[in-house]
Amino acid sequence: MFELVTVNTKDGLLLKGLYAKGLQNKPVVIQLHGYSQDFFQNEFILKIANKLQEHQIGFLSVMIRGTGTEFRIFTTSKNARMYGAKHELLEEAYLDIDAWIQLLADAGHNQIILQGHSLGSIKAIRYLIEGSFAYKISQLILLSPYDKNYLIREYTKDRLGEYLQKAQLKIANGKGLEQVPDLFSPTPSTYQNYFSFYMDSDLSNLFNFHQPDYSFPILQKIEIPTLMLVGKKDPYFHPSNPDHPEEALEMLDRSIKNFHGESIDGAKHRFLGKEDLLANLILDFVQG
Question: Which Pfam families does its entry note (predicted)?
Answer without folding.
Answer: DUF1749
